[in-house]
Amino acid sequence: MRTVRIGLWAAVVALALIATAAYFLVKVPGTGQAGTFGAGTYSLVDGNGGPVTEASFKGAPSMLFFGYTHCPDVCPTTLSDMAAWFAQLGDEGQPLKGYFVTVDPERDTPEVIKDYVASVTDRVTGITGTPEEIAKILSAWRVYSKKVPGVDGEYTMDHTASVFLLNSKGEFEGTIAYQESSTVAIEKLKKLLAKG
């Protein structure tokens, strides 16, 4: 019986590894090939109403996080983490950009997302848009997002909680997991900055 259990667990691990490889092999980080992870076109706006497209993520290494302003825990924690990483990097982190893209465009207007992000840091740009355009960027980056009904018409959003790391070509280079240690996060950001 023990041998059967070990065999089953080995099969589960193997399937998980295959699924993970299939997900990320669609785009090898740094290849920038069309139709790959992160590829897509969308027309969004920042907190000042300025245009944001896929081209906006080119020209500098950046952190890209998807969240929403009514989030009770993950989003404010991650936004605070991003502010702390910028502070820890100091001058070394000057080329690094930060973006907070809403998964809740119904409530997160440009003004709302601007005020929300600015209350924590001036180094991160809040981004919103129409539900249709937000759906396009979520699809491009394969971000999970789902509305969860609450009471009295209120709702929360389940969503991907990782910070995406992009190189200066706007290509995916890796992630920082939710509540990953600051030491590991800074190490990843320094590697990203070194690549340019």
Low-confidence stretches: 4-35
Helix and strand string, N-terminal first?
Answer: HEEEHEHEHEEEEH
Class based on secondary structure composition and strand pairing: alpha+beta
CATH 4th-level superfamily of the largest domain? Glutaredoxin
How do the strands and helices of this protein lay out in sequence?
Layout (H helix, E strand, L loop, with lengths): L1 H24 L18 E3 L4 E2 L9 E6 L6 H16 L7 E6 L7 H9 L5 E5 L2 H10 L4 E5 L5 E5 L3 E4 L5 E5 L5 H14 L1
Parallel strand pairs: 3-4, 4-5
Antiparallel strand pairs: 1-2, 1-5, 3-8, 6-7, 8-9
Helix pairs in contact: 2-5
Description:
With 196 residues, this protein is α+β, with helices and mostly antiparallel strands. It has two domains: 1-30; 31-195, Glutaredoxin (3-Layer(aba) Sandwich). The protein has five helices and nine strands, in the order αβββαβαβαββββα. It has helices at residues 2-25, 74-89, 110-118, 131-140, 182-195; strands spanning 44-46, 51-52, 62-67, 97-102, 124-128, 145-149, 155-159, 163-166, 172-176. Helix 2 packs across helix 5. The longest helix has 24 residues, at 2-25. The chain starts with a helix and ends with a helix.
